[in-house]
Design a protein that fits this description.
This protein is α/β, with parallel strands linked by helices. It has 12 helices and 10 strands. The structure holds erythose-4-phosphate.
């Protein structure tokens, strides 16, 4: 499974890249806002364009970086996608354009299929598209048919939605059972989907059935256990926040083992390294 880092914060990106396990980067308008607030808070001069160029250069040619459009109509999203690609892909050839699967903000919006139209147009031009805000397996199927390079199912937000449908309070990083939450004799579900991991697993089954090349980029990841489960169901990529990446390396018994090895080291063995 490839690991992307889900942040626009260059300090986090540079540190995570130095660990040697990051294969790409995803951003969205909320993550860009967080990064802008962080750097402005440090009293730094800030130019969005030079910042994005620095981020793309730090990622380098081999690591795709997703940049998201902010429009709601076919015309706006297509124009913004072209602007992002033309302005920034020259830096390291690694720009991927993020398009919402459905940009409507109210049910029954006339623009419900505008995302698919833009995904198709960009993909036909050879511009890689990451389709965002995927909440159902059939949205992923439509995005794959339109030619998406990646689909981003939002595992954590589906878990949030399932919990909030039952008015269950939770913290953002709380674990949600992959096999679903059993309440009485009901498994809490959204049209048959019982968790964010289940959503990803269902998309995996569909893509395998039809040999789609589209990669499943599991997004909205909330904790290390969810990462494990996403790998188990066969996500091609998980995009992971900095804090969750840090959690993945940590275990009490590993630290305890380090202390014991250090305490047991005899001078004769230490001398080899001097
Ligand atoms: C990724 O590209 C998504 O935009 C991101 O993972 C969303 O995460 P969140 O649900 O924690 O905001």
């Amino acid at each position: 499974m490839k690991i992307f880092i889900d942040t626009a914060n260059l300090d986090e990106i540079k540190e995570a890249l130095s660990w040697g396990i990051v294969d790409g980067i995803t951003t969205n308008p909320s993550l860009i806002k967080k990064a802008v607030d962080y750097f402005k808070g440090k009293g730094k001069e800030f130019s969005m364009e030079s910042y994005i160029k620095e981020l793309l250069a730090a990622a380098g040619r081999e690591r795709p970086v997703s940049l998201e459009v902010i429009g709601n109509t076919e015309e706006e999203m297509y124009r913004q996608a072209k602007t992002l690609f033309e302005k920034f892909n020259g830096v390291a050839g690694n720009v991927v354009i993020k398009i919402p699967v459905n940009p409507e903000t109210e049910e029954g919006g006339k623009n419900a299929f505008d995302g698919l139209k833009v995904i198709k147009a960009l993909s036909d031009e050879g511009i890689p598209v990451n389709v965002t805000l995927i909440m159902t397996p059939v949205q992923a199927l439509l995005a794959a048919k339109a030619g998406a390079k990646y689909v981003s199912p939002f595992a954590g937000r589906i878990d949030d939605y399932l919990r909030s449908s039952k008015k269950i309070t939770f913290e953002k990083h709380d674990y949600f059972p992959a096999e679903g939450l059993v309440l009485g004799d009901e498994i809490v579900n959204d049209n048959g989907i019982v968790s964010g991991v289940d959503l990803v697993g269902s998309i995996r089954d569909i893509f395998n059935n039809y040999d789609f090349d589209t990669e499943i980029l599991a997004a909205s990841v909330r904790n290390a256990r969810q990462v494990r489960e996403l790998a188990e169901v066969g996500a091609d990529v998980a995009t992971i926040p900095f804090a969750v990446l840090k959690d993945m390396i940590s275990h009490y018994k590993t630290r305890e083992g380090m202390v014991k090895f250090a305490n047991d080291t005899v001078p004769e063995y230490r001398e080899i390294f001097e």
